């Protein structure tokens, strides 16, 4: 399994930027994909974006063109670079990891709060 710890959240003004980090430990050699989800008050958790081991990525339409997922070569750390932030981006952001184990339901971080406000 993989253990994940997010950091980098905070308060930022609209139009500003933040970079979230997700530190991974455990069986990181078996990681197939890592990504980010977010959950705003009163809403369901939604996918932000995913980075796959083959280099492919996917992003939610709401963040495409503004957010970018990247990683260290050994999956030790995954990043979410957030630019042109909007108040609608306010949420708790969660890191996610999935291994090559077909029975793996994924690992989750504890979440980090991002607040976009003047």
In the predicted model, the low-confidence regions spanning at least 5 consecutive residues are none
Quaternary organisation of the protein chains:
single chain
Report mean pLDDT, rounded to a whole number: 96
Shape: globular
| Rg calculated over all Cα atoms | 14 Å
Strand residue content: over 45%
Q: What percentage of residues falls in helices of 4 or more residues?
A: under 10%
Given helix and strand content, the structural type is mainly beta
Helix-strand topology string: EEEEEEEEEEE
Q: How is the biggest beta sheet arranged?
A: 7 strands, mixed
- What's the end-to-end separation, in Å? 40 Å
What is the number of strand segments?
A: 11
Number of helices: 0
Outline the structure in words:
The protein has strands spanning 2-7, 10-12, 18-26, 31-39, 46-52, 57-59, 67-71, 77-82, 91-99, 107-108, 112-116. The mean pLDDT is 96. By secondary structure, it is mainly beta. Helices cover 0% and strands 54% of the residues. The strands form two sheets. Strands 2, 4, 5, 6, 9, 10 and 11 form a seven-stranded mixed beta sheet that branches. The protein has a four-stranded antiparallel beta sheet with strand order 1-3-8-7, with no helix packed on it. The protein is built from no helices and eleven strands.
